[in-house]
From TrEMBL:
Keyword Membrane: yes
SMART domains to which the protein is assigned, alphabetical: HAMP (SM00304), HATPase_c (SM00387), HisKA (SM00388)
Catalysed transformations (reactions): ATP + protein L-histidine = ADP + protein N-phospho-L-histidine
GO terms of molecular function: ATP binding; phosphorelay sensor kinase activity
Compartment(s) of residence: Cell membrane
Name of this protein: histidine kinase
Membrane topology: Multi-pass membrane protein
PANTHER family: PEROXIDE STRESS-ACTIVATED HISTIDINE KINASE MAK3, SENSOR HISTIDINE KINASE
Single GO cellular component term: plasma membrane
Amino acid sequence: MARRGRSVRARLLIIALLPMLILMPLLIGITTQRWLWRTDQILAARVASDLTVAQQYLAHLIDSTGGQVAALGQSAAFRDHTVDDPDRFLATSRQRLGLDYLLLLDGSGRALTPDEVTLPTGTGIALLEAPTLAALSQPLAERARIPLIATPASAPDGRQAETRGMVIHATSPVTLPGGDTALLAGGILLNNNTGFIDRINELVYPAADSNMQRVLAGGFDHGVTTLFLGDTRIATTLRPSGSARALGTRASAEVRNRVLVEGGSWHDTAFVVSEWYISAYEAITDISGARVGMLYTGIPKAPYTAARKVTWAITGGAFLVALLLSLPLFLHWARGIFRPLEAMGRTMSRVERGDMDARTLTDPPPGPDEMLRLARHLDRLLDLLQQRDRDLRALNADLNTRVEERTADLTRANLALEAATRQLILSEKLATIGEVTAGVAHEINNPLAVIQGNLEIVGMVLADHGGDAATELALIDEQIRRIGALVNQLLQFARPEEFDHGPDTDPAQVAQGLRPLIQHLMAGIELQCDIRSTRRVRMNIHELQQILVNLAVNAIQAMPQGGTIFLTCRDAAAQDGRDGVRLTLRDTGTGMDKDTLSRIFDPFFTTRGTRGTGLGLSICQTLINRHMGRLDVHSTPGQGTTFCVWLSAEGQS
């Protein structure tokens, strides 16, 4: 069955709502997504800009430190005070300038006091090992030491703490009072330097105060600034727990490889300690140009992700509200179109089911004038269609009547012609066989008469010798008489109207005498008889004997490899209540298919080729029908055939 299409209502709704339900959400989604994508670009650019500010401040601090050290070395105070007590002057100057160390170096960078310290020459970022820091100041070494904290996504590291110090280091050549030249070296330790990192954070993110209270209270401008020594945070404004700074935590392995190993920059989302940040990383190089750390700025991604969800929710909610408000109004307006269309649809459905009286305007639907005109036009077309249908039905009925009459006449004529043809053919064949049979019977009777006369003479001659051959002569005489009876039966078959049915016969006696007649054909075949009939039948003994012999010979020929013939004889009544005898002959032979079974009683039909005449079963059926009997056959290929002969008992009409 074909699939039903969508209704007119559904199609119009789809056409009308398609822009609102598909195109508008698609447009809103694309616009919103593009806006959010642009926002991500702005955030990434902002973080990169914040990192540039932090780099500029770090460069300014390096230059400022170098300038202060150079100015001190060139000052008159340096020349005046280094003669009497240089150590005291340097200590006082260190505190005034806010430096963590300040000392004099020889030309190779070795400190004049203490002489076991060696520092790099030049101005910039420098790494100082723990022994160097301890030689400068034990508190400085302790401040530089930062325990390492296990951090998700970081690269494996077997150290327990970071003991190196990252310093802003500056050297300036000076002339000592004795005329010797030296280097004035000073620096600021950046490990655990909260003032330094908070100052950068204030410059980069001015909306957050130093206590990060607004970070805890909410808002999007609570950015983070971090200074890394290698991949370890040595100064940061990041407070994962809200109070303690995340000192000793480490950058992710992916960031470390990109920035420190490969020398690139990172401007993307990155996992920072415990959450995702929109991040920017740049490498920090020391005085020699080696990458020794990173400078980082970033803002948390979570608030913007939440804002994105809120934006989607607001946009989707606004769309749904607009849809819910406009859809009822649209449906109200569309109902004026749907009703007439549905009424016309129902009318056409009724017409399709055979109701030619169906009309749309029997109950005028409300709607625009255009729809009413369309409905009236449909009704006029249906009126014309109904009239044409009546005319066609009348013509069709008349034509059918004429065709049926002509067909019946032709059928009757064809049946009569076929019956006449079959009867003519059969009559012609039977007439021919009748003429041949009469001639054969005449030719056979003359020799039989001579043989029988001579047999009587032989009997009389042999009777004088003791009658030793009397039995054999009696058997010969009986067979001669049987031949005469068979010839007589042939004449009866050819001219049945000239003979009556003859005396009644005991079928049990005929059945018991069957074995000697077919004994010479029963090589490898067994005959089993079950004779229990008590009635006599209305048939000549020779006719019944011929019927049984024909059926038995057919059964023998159907069992070329041997088998068994079962012959039973019972008193049995017909379906109409007449008394009679049923003789059943069943074999275990090859059987017959349906096509062969339907033709076995046709004259001259045989399955034995030139060895058979095709008249045996036809003659048997003719003899049985002549005496108001019945011949039935049942056969299954490969399982054998059963013939049932029912003959009416004597005294039955």
